[in-house]
């Protein structure tokens, strides 16, 4: 076995918090490991420190960094590491986010054939594994907890102002055979420093001494003496070399962007920093660019309230100086929010975008053949809607997670609602809840997923699924690159074909937005850095990097089909109503149909009887629901009876049960008892979500309001605990909605009572009322 002499070196050890959590699969742990190494490389590079020797420890690693001033390890590195971790976490879900324990020490480390060893290396790991460091990280909302040894604090931290020694706290560490003192801090969320109490000493009265007047020297003699003393030094000072220029702190530039653009923009930001450093005559770092990724909804929420939320810093990062969203619609959405809240000190100054990427339909080969695109690449919204309405297999990103999701939602809703622009008026029409729910059944959005993460699910579970996503994400998918936050690079899968919209194609244009905080003083140097950063992003080298990453040139002409017309989206678009409509319209309903089977329902109604009209109405209204929705059927006369229990996958059973020869029961029907019983059935499931709807179809012929405790029944109907339960009454006897008190009851449950005149004529209105009862926005 070979041995080498021990070598003095700085030791840095890191450990990922909760790396072995049961919620983390092997795939999650790989993403965490890749993210840890990437964050360390980025932090060391920004702090201008070498990578050095390292050994992997599974859930962490240690680095040996010799020949570097030790103060550099605690001056900028902790802050750069915290920033790199925040950047990683902004792009990843809860299972792949990273919080880190760090320990720093210095000492002698030896080597043999099995690796590194030494007492000082062991000492570093005792600090890393100590309970005080675990507790510091657990009690911090930040991403980093740092422990330095007592020696390192006394000899390095204490004498390095840039390390901010005041934020460190001493803790006793007892770990295995080690008992020592560690100095611990949380650099990205330092605890406030307790002020040192002022010690007031009593005033001492000193005895007065007699004044002594000294002779005043003649000023001519003083000046002459000074000149004689300085004269010999003149040549020496004139010939001396100028003192070394000390670099000023670089300008901090915070850039907010999307999860799709963030990886490429971080590379561009690093290249910009290097270019600025190389161009400076004193080799000083001019700027430190922090790129933070956020979802569409997260960025809109934080910017829309001027970054004034209590947890905006924690959830969305520092206030941005520049914002590069995926689309200009993001700017319109934030501007609409800011306009509703006067007094917020934030203004947006957009500049032309740095790249482009259209929204495409990414489809496997079998679905491409079924869609029959023109020239093998062009489709229309009409052809997509026709294919989507005939079966499963279509999806899109979440409109709150990405601009791609919002653009796809706006485009498809415009087509289905037949509206030129989705304004507030258009989004509050009577048919909107019904049409939106149908649209969500045809092309449902994938909750919390952007384009990359959505294609990640398709890569992991390949099948017959077509997705409306960005062209850039399809390029990444087909090249086997990393997708979103959870999919590392892989072997190339079977390619998806991007199909383009012939007209009204949604396009992401990645505008460059300067965010000015008008309640803060101007920072002229930062504005200069912003201008230089924008110039760099528009330069040929940056455009080439963007193109290599899957984005189109900002003119859209450097590859792929040339799009004819872009989707028109204006500032009047009701973005918030669209997001809410999608969220509400995607919920699975719970609907209980209650049909009156009293003898009075045998009376004629148009071409048949009242009960035949009631069963036909049930079959028509069932068309709005799928097998995943919970539906049920009950009848009522003097008592109630469950015909088809409330459950999923019951639509076929209800169609069979609601036949024209529905049997009637003797006696008078108790419509009020049926309302109470139906409400109880719907509310019995305490864990169900969304909105319930009870649809009563009756003639109310025997209903006697004077024989019912209407205030008590109204209170039961009104009570919405634990779930919102609405009541729609369809009356087959004109005028009975009012006289039987059913209008009053239905209004108490936020719905209505309708006197039916014709199934054919009234079915559109009733379909809208059923949809409004289930998916209306509050």
TrEMBL record:
Protein name: Mg-chelatase subunit ChlD
Species in which this protein is naturally found: Actinokineospora cianjurensis
Lineage: Bacteria, Bacillati, Actinomycetota, Actinomycetes, Pseudonocardiales
One Pfam family cited in the UniProt record for this chain: SBP_bac_11
SUPFAM superfamilies: vWA-like
Residue ranges of every copy of the VWFA domain listed in the record: 590-774
